[in-house]
Specification:
Blueprint (H helix, E strand, L loop, with lengths): L1 H15 L2 H35 L6 E7 L2 E3 L1 E2 L2 H6 L4 E7 L1 E6 L4 E7 L9 E4 L11 E4 H7 L9 E2 L5 E2 L3 E6 L3 H4 L2 E4 L1 H8 L5 E2 L1 E6 L5 H11 L3 E5 H38 L4 H12 L4 H32 L7 H5 L16 H27 L3 H6 L1
Parallel strand pairs: 6-12, 8-11
Antiparallel strand pairs: 1-2, 1-14, 1-15, 3-13, 4-14, 5-6, 7-11, 8-12, 9-10
Helix pairs in contact: 1-10, 2-8, 2-10, 2-12, 8-12, 10-12
């Protein structure tokens, strides 16, 4: 341990002898780490939110198509779906999107009867959603962006141009910020009035299946009953979310290639040779009795110190970028159309995947590049090294 600490102390002292060079390398190194980690953490946070959103989603969503577009579906079809073996619950859902001019955001209006029991957690107001709701309850994002509280009114324009202003009876949150941020829950009669929707139709039908392995069988039977329906499974939605975020992340990853290329040039420059002062130092160390393994260990710890400091600085910068600035650099591309909704706080968290991607990409090449020229110089005769 005493030998290790001596070598480690000498490695730190060697870096401090060239403070501006070390600072420049750490700055570039940290910037690259911050960019890569910010992108990975932002993608991971959005992917986590999407999975949280779909935890309580039904296994199957049945939609009716007309002219290749989503159309309202008759509620009478629920009885035939309920009769299919393996179906545990069938709920016609009434919902839609309403554009809010003051905030330039799309709010999701949802009928109270379609909200799963226990899905919403109220922190202001205590109105039962499925029983006794007269006005509306809003998500935290809607309350923040419209400065709403219990007792205030939320004006909404109907499809006929009329103005309705239900009273806010509660403000809720949920496990997923994507679910609560733009959501407004109100009685189904009010939702139908806003969207001019007839009583006998619904936006779609949610189907719950007892055995998840029977989802495909239930889907096939539903499609055999009505050729004009489209079925969407929870698994398909999850795969779509993952594919979309991977694609959007790939767009930014392609742009980051320039930064990776610049770092590769830095690593290549370090791997092609050492400076005259570094050659002379290695020659002196060999002349006073240092072995090749000792010199390599010294350079390894120099690279490890620079890499460790850069990675920690980069991780801190990435967290600040995501938490304080809401990932402003990548938000427009990663969120896409969802930027029209009220902003929600990200919940970035380091995981094994992020570290496994970051470390081989930036840490290993730099450390290896520090050892290759050092090994070439350390196996050469000390006298010729110092003369060169």
């Amino acid at each position: 341990m005493k030998r290790f600490f001596r070598i480690f102390e000498f490695a730190v002292a060697s870096l401090l002898r060239y403070p501006f060079k070390t600072l420049a390398v750490v700055s570039v190194y940290s910037l690259l780490v911050a960019l890569v980690v910010s992108l990975l953490l932002m993608l991971g946070a959005h992917r986590l939110e999407s999975h949280r959103l779909l935890e309580t989603a039904p296994e199957i969503i049945v939609q009716r198509l007309a002219g290749g577009r989503h159309d309202l579906i008759p509620i009478s079809r629920t009885e035939a779906i309920r009769a299919i073996r393996g179906v545990s619950a069938v709920v016609p859902r009434v919902w839609g999107y309403s554009y809010d001019p003051p905030t330039r955001a799309n709010f999701t209006l949802w009928a109270a009867e379609s909200v799963p029991a226990g899905a919403l957690e109220f922190h202001d107001g205590a109105t039962p959603v499925n029983d006794g709701l007269v006005g509306c309850v809003v998500g935290q994002g809607v309350a923040d962006v419209r400065f709403l509280g219990v007792g205030d009114r939320l004006p909404i324009k109907t499809a006929n141009g009329e103005l309705v202003a239900p009273r806010v009876e509660g403000v809720f949150t949920a496990h997923s910020a994507l679910l609560t941020n733009d959501l407004v829950v109100m009685p189904s009669e009010m939702v139908r009035r806003i969207f001019s929707m007839e009583p006998g139709v619904a936006t779609d039908i949610a189907v719950s299946v007892t055995n998840p392995h029977e989802v495909d069988t239930v889907v096939r039977k539903i499609q055999e009953l009505w050729p004009d329906v489209r079925t969407i499974t929870r698994r398909q939605i999850l795969q779509t979310y993952d594919a979309v975020f991977d694609w959007r992340g790939g767009v930014w990853a392609a742009l980051l290639l320039s930064c990776v290329a610049a770092f590769a040039i830095l690593v290549w420059d370090k791997a092609t040779g050492l400076s005259t002062e570094e050659y002379r130092t290695i020659g002196v160390l060999k002349a006073v009795g240092w072995k090749t393994a000792d010199v390599l260990e010294l350079k390894f710890w120099e690279g490890a110190v620079v890499s460790g400091l850069s990675v920690l600085t980069g991780l801190l910068a990435a967290q600040i970028h995501l938490i304080v600035f809401d990932g402003a650099l990548f938000a427009r591309v990663v969120k896409g159309w969802s930027v029209m909704f009220p902003d929600f706080d990200l919940a970035p968290g380091l995981d094994v995947y992020t570290m496994l991607v970051c470390l081989p990409l930036v840490v290993v090449p730099y450390v290896v590049a520090s050892l290759v020229p050092t090994w070439r110089a350390s196996v050469t005769d000390p006298d010729s090294v110092m003369r060169s």
